[in-house]
Sucrose phosphorylase
Amino acid sequence: MAVKNQVQLITYPDSLGGDLKTLNQVLLNYFTDIFKGGVHILPPFPSSGDRGFAPLSYLEIEPAFGTWKDIKAIGENFDVLVDLMVNHISRQSEYFQDFLKKGRKSEYVDLFITLDKVWEDGNPVQDDISKMFLRRSLPYSTFTIAETGEEEKVWTTFGKTDPSEQIDLDIKSKRVKQLITDFFLNFKENNVKIVRLDAVGYVIKKLGTSCFFVEPEIYEFLDWVLELAKSLDIEILPEVHSHYTIQNKLSEHGCWIYDFILPYRILDTLINKSSIALIDYLKNRPHNQFTMLDCHDGIPVKPDLDDLIDTTEARKLVDVCLQRGSNLSLILSDEHKSEDGFDVHQIRCSYYSVLNNDDDAYISARAIQFFTPGIPQVYYVGLLAGENDYERVRETGEGREINRHNYSLMEIEKSLEKEVVKRLLKLIRFRNDYDAFNGEFKVLESNKDEIYLSWQKDKKRCTLYIDFKTNRPVIDYIDRDGKDTQYYV
């Protein structure tokens, strides 16, 4: 199965109508010709935290969302993409709960990384830990085993609580490889076509390294997963937030990668009315990427754009975003901040809001995204030109909820009446159906306050022109009758 070069939707299972059955109806009623590339359903599994990203199992669907039958039904008409948090599983999973009860006598003990698998005597060494790229103050949690009262230290890369809710899996273990295989077999059985490997950069634990994207071991694991997926006709999308050179290595290894640089580059272009950095980037980036502007987290900044942006200029851009209602996710460890202290990990906002609810600027952003080589993904809030949801942030205390509004059917229908949404849907149809996007891409010469992009395949040709003084995109293309036609987007 090849990934379709058409537009995909990203949504939570309950964000467009409340559950998976309703999501399927929404897709069939309004978007059959819109999301021809597929649907990325953010984790629909039973989970103990992080809005789905601490799954108990991949063999079940959270009952509040529906069942595997609902996923399978969506898969009848749309290629379904789901996440596999390949680095960890929930502390509440039956596997870890059994370990918590029986300790080393548990049949699942091999799934987890007890510290004697890292340090021979099981005692952590601070010199080794100081070399690691930490996501919490210590890379392990301490648990008390119910039957013996003994303490066990287990590796936990992620998690805001102590002990953590997200327990790392030992990918060297045959039991873990069998578990991952079982998950993939279940995905295949239920019409899943693409699997995103979430947090895959952290799966290798090796003393003397950062324990992040450890080479060459990371490739050995990836090759094993790629082979397994290929045997089941499933595509793999590794998700790695890191320095752009690591993304390039994955690309050279033949993997699909995420373009985490494009959202910032487009935002910078539209706010500062200069396309110099964007054009330079478009000329040099790998093409085998999934592109996005918005997602359930935020617009990536550090570490994805390290060495690509001037932090003084970045601060000014961030200040504009804050004035427009955004909030920030920050880098916590001093050693991973920029030399001048710049510490912005992600800018959290709706993309429509951060462009000041300017319809032309927003459609320009989407037009650039769709003309950039790769598989375009549109987040559900962005699809409906949703605005910052400050109420959700206040209710939950979670800054990311600013861009996670749950839409009722009535709100969806109302949003579809907005002029900006109608323009976006028309643009998506053009991107899905015009054959030149399967041809050759070029960045044409232009002034610094404009952009000129083109695609050509045989006699089909289309060019996008945007003057950033007006932000009104114009597409020139050869129509079915062979005539040169202008489309004011």
